[in-house]
Write a structure and sequence with these properties.
The protein is an alpha+beta fold and 111 residues long. It is built from two helices and three strands; from the N terminus they run αβαββ. Helix content is 69%, strand content 13%.
Length: 111
């Protein structure tokens, strides 16, 4: 009966130990990458949500600016000779109006 030599036995054990250490290192690397990927995805989703919110806000502000410009142009083009120019300003809406006199704008309460 042949008995394996001690050197081949130690070589076999060393190879198994090295393979085990390598497998553990690879598993730990994969776990680390998985955690980093989850963190990156959370950050990306937060940034996407913030970007969408800012896009919505920018679009709303652009629409507001456009509609205000259109209203302003519409009022001045149709009422250049009007004595009273109505505004949607809360202070002016309570009975005040802008009276155009001699190119100067003055606020005067309605009677």
């Amino acid at each position: 009966m042949l008995v394996p030599s001690h050197s081949s036995r130690y070589s076999s054990l060393f190879s198994k130990a090295a393979a085990s250490v390598l497998a553990v290192a690879e598993r730990q690397s994969l776990e680390t990458l998985g955690r980093e990927e989850k963190t990156a995805l959370r950050t990306l989703n937060q940034l996407k949500a913030k970007f969408e919110e800012m896009e919505t806000r920018r679009n709303k502000l652009n629409e507001d600016a456009t509609s205000q410009g259109e209203r302003k142009n519409g009022v001045w083009s149709t009422c250049t000779s009007c004595a009273f120019v109505p505004f949607s300003d809360p202070v002016l809406a309570r009975g005040e109006a802008l009276i155009l006199t001699g190119g100067l704008n003055t606020r005067q309460a309605r009677v």
